[in-house]
């Protein structure tokens, strides 16, 4: 009933990280190149669930768009746009706010993590309801598949629950039950400073992450200072089990080189970090320098980026509008 269509998004709440690249962007490009219909969104409505400086938000949105294009998203083959320019996202989110239950939101581990040790009552209502907007992002296009990192798995399950409850409550088979696509060696890239936290653009420590705009010497510094244990790399994958920092660097290497983690271990097993880290730095610089160079070139012409995003929004809206119209009809509006 539903033709394959891919949707995914990234928040323009800071610069793009290596985690965003390996867990999301690189996969987005692969899906585009497989010839599936691909729709990618800079989710600025999600970004403002935590206060953003308006000028920075505007700049980060353009920078993220440049990152997508530099990484290989072709805005003629994929639809690339900014969430707030397609009003259907907020409109469908409202309907889903009335379908989803408070308890579902309260059980989200990301909500719990983001409010841990803080007064949750003082967080924005938007942060609490974020997964409902995410469901709207996806279902507004009847997307069947969503490539994401592991951190989004639970939100994707909630999207499925919302689609199923809507279909059930209104006695229709209108929204697809979307499949998460979590693939590859780096579905959860960890912080370089703390092996128990994911690498994130919103981590206050810049040393914890590689930014797509980092220069070669920053990449080198950050990997060389990355927290590790003193042991050489193990000879088998098993040996990485209780070594989260070592495992993270091996996963990053594998994903950047398009190798399996087994193959990386076969090459570097028994070698110390004094050998492995410089090899990782060389690989990361070789893969990321062309992307950051292209981003700089694109960001020199913000008007062109705005035109690209405007065109993407028109095309996104052409798909979204009839689906929203039908949703309103189903609901009795
Ligand atoms: P961030 O935490 O950097 O703000 P987003 O919430 O904007 O990331 O997520 C955008 C996409 O990047 C999602 O698909 C998410 O799963 C993926 N992603 C984010 N951080 C990581 C990570 N550390 N490892 C793998 N994928 C990640
Ligand atoms: Na996130």
UniProtKB/TrEMBL annotation:
List where the motif 'HIGH' region lies.
Answer: 12-20
**Record field: transmembrane:** none
Q: Where is this motif: 'KMSKS' region?
A: 198-202
Q: What CDD domains does the annotation carry? A: TrpRS_core
Instruction: Name the Enzyme Commission number(s) assigned to this protein.
Output: 6.1.1.2
Q: Which residues are L-tryptophan-binding? A: 137
User: Any idea which positions bind ATP?
Assistant: 11-13, 19-20, 149-151, 189, 198-202
Q: Is DNA-binding included in the keywords of this UniProt record?
A: no
Just give the chief location class: cytoplasm
The GO terms describing molecular function are: tryptophan-tRNA ligase activity
- Pfam families, A to Z: tRNA-synt_1b
Q: What class of enzyme is it?
A: ligase
Described purpose of this protein according to its UniProt entry:
Catalyzes the attachment of tryptophan to tRNA(Trp).
Quaternary form?
Homodimer.
Question: By what name is this protein known?
Answer: Tryptophan--tRNA ligase
| Underlying gene | trpS
């Amino acid at each position: 009933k539903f033709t394959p269509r891919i949707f995914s998004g990234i928040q323009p709440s800071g610069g793009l990280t290596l985690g965003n690249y390996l867990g999301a962007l690189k996969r987005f490009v692969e899906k585009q190149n497989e010839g599936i219909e691909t729709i990618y969104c800079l989710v600025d409505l999600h970004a403002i669930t935590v206060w953003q400086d308006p000028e920075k938000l505007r700049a980060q949105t353009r920078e993220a768009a440049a990152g997508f294009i530099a990484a290989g998203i072709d805005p003629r083959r994929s639809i690339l746009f900014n969430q707030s320019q397609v009003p259907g996202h907020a409109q469908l989110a409202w309907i889903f706010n009335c379908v989803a239950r408070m308890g579902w939101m309260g059980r989200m581990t990301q909500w719990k993590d983001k409010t841990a040790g803080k007064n949750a009552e003082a967080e924005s209502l938007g942060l609490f309801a974020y997964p409902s907007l995410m469901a709207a992002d996806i279902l507004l296009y009847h997307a069947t598949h969503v490539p994401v990192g592991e951190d989004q798995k639970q939100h994707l399950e909630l999207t499925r629950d919302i689609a199923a409850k809507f279909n059930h409550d209104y006695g229709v088979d209108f929204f697809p039950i979307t499949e998460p696509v979590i693939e590859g060696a780096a579905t959860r890239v960890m912080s370089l400073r703390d092996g128990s936290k994911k690498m994130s653009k919103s981590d206050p420590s810049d040393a914890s992450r590689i930014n797509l705009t980092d220069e070669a010497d920053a990449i080198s510094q950050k990997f060389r200072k990355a927290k590790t244990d003193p042991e050489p790399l193990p000879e088998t994958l098993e040996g990485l089990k209780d070594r989260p920092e070592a495992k993270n660097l091996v996963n990053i290497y594998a994903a950047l080189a398009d190798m399996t983690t087994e193959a990386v271990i076969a090459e570097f097993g028994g070698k110390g970090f004094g050998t492995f880290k410089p090899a990782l730095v060389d690989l990361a610089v070789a893969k990321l320098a062309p992307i950051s160079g292209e981003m700089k070139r694109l960001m020199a012409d913000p008007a062109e980026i705005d035109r690209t995003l405007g065109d993407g929004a028109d095309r996104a809206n052409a798909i979204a509008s009839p689906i929203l119209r039908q949703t309103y009809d189903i609901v009795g509006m």
